[in-house]
Structure formats: structure tokens, C-alpha cells
Design a protein that fits this description.
86 residues; Rossmann fold; 2 helices
């Protein structure tokens, strides 16, 4: 979705593949969405996508890690982002 198509959205959630969601984060950063929840299985692309959101006016309120794959070293990250004053 484009930033202009998000005008009636209050909260967005994205959970991309390991490559991340740079294009989606850029559209969210340019939108009027007040809160974003980002889920990621790759800390590197999570950091990149988080930087895009932060540079677009969001603040990172909280990061959670979930070790949902018992026999694997992989973790899922969840970040909660909001715009100041919302």
C-alpha cells in the first residue's frame, strides 16, 4: 500500500520474510499511521526497517523477543512504534 492509501488506518502490522520490509516501512513512515507493530525473524533487517520508521517520525516504544522455535537459534522480534503525541 502507498502512504496515500493509509490515511484511514490507525495501526499497521507487518511481518515480512527475512529480507525485511524496507519498501513497506518507507510507505508507513510517509503516512499518517499512528502506530506500527513490526515483526521480524532477522535482527539486521529489523534494525534497518526500524531506522526507516524512526527517521519518518516514529519512536520505538518497546522491543520483544520470542524464542518460538525450541530447537533453533532463531528468534522473532516484535517492535512497537508510535508517533509522538498520538
Amino acid at each position: 500500500m502507498l502512504a496515500s492509501e493509509l490515511s484511514k488506518i490507525d495501526v499497521a502490522v507487518f511481518d515480512p520474510p527475512r529480507a525485511g520490509a524496507a519498501a513497506q516501512a518507507a510507505q508507513l513512515a510517509g503516512s499518517s499511521v499512528a502506530r506500527v507493530i513490526a515483526v521480524s525473524c532477522n535482527p539486521t533487517t529489523f534494525a534497518r526497517d526500524a531506522r526507516i520508521l524512526i527517521d519518518g517520525g516514529f519512536s520505538l516504544d518497546r522491543v520483544l523477543s520470542v524464542d518460538q522455535f525450541l530447537w533453533s537459534p532463531h528468534i522473532e522480534l516484535m517492535g512497537i512504534f508510535s508517533r509522538a503525541g498520538r
